[in-house]
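All the exercises in this workshop are built on plain-text protein records. Sequence and backbone structure share a record, each on its own labelled line. The question running through the whole workshop is how a given chain folds. The record below serves as our worked example for the rest of this section.
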Amino acid sequence: MQLSKAQIIGKNIKKLRKQAQLTQVELAQGIGTQAQISKIEQGLVIPLSTTLYEIAEKLGVDLHGFFEHVYESQSNYLKEVKNQIRKEIRNRNYEEVERILTFEAKNNVFQSDYDYQFFLWHKGILTFYIDQLHEKSIAFLEEAFKLTNKNKDTVTTLQEVEILNSIAIIYNEIKDYRQSIEKYKQAIRHFKEMIEITDRRVEIRLYYGLAKSLFKNQDYEESIAYCKKGINVCINEEILYLLGELYYEQGQNYQTLEKRELAHNAYQTAKQLFQIGKRPAFIKVVDEKLTALKDDIIT
């Protein structure tokens, strides 16, 4: 049976730790906890590159030599780094993303235009969420977009579409809904022009984001239309991703338009999906909406 990357890393760390005559507790000091080291050695988790650096330094081994043994090529290592960054972004762990980006930038891993674009993209995100500088953040994101999108009105990579999505999100966050809507529509147009579509979740994310900005801009009917587009993609592709959120957003629009029965049905569907996904915080929010809707009907 072929070992996974996590198992290879864990096996090598355990071997090197024993050679250094260190216990898991001793290795963990100044790095993390004994439980974390245990999980890494068992191959249950892939440690962050910064954690690997600290482990390698404590074990007295060359980090790059260690990576060469674990990863088949530099591109595979970079892929792992990018996956980790995207995971931390989804978890809104922006300080950890900053740590990883700073460390990897020093190692010169973002060399090609495409990889440096990834770096600038996330630098732009951090500039907004950590430094709270929206103009500078958008400037970084626009620079990132133009890095591979020079003098053309077409988008050729999914990464370019995702950068447009990030710009649209920031405009939404600063309540510039018209600019947000414009960027979302640009991203959707380019997504549809792509020759090969590899990730439908990006399309769903765009429809959901646009629906939210349209709702905030009081364009309720159009928001409902984009909720339906997102829901249709989820159903056709058999994807649950953001399906509950789309029904919830649809419910908000119907409620604002005083279409109470449609709002109730949308909220109920959203609640069922959140129950399937075991998301109690979302269920609570929907229950509050249903209660408010019921009170409106009674009064």
Summary: Residues 117 and 146 are 9 Å apart (CA to CA). The chain has three domains: 1-70, 82-198, 203-299. The mean pLDDT is 89. Residues 280-298 form the longest helix (19 residues).
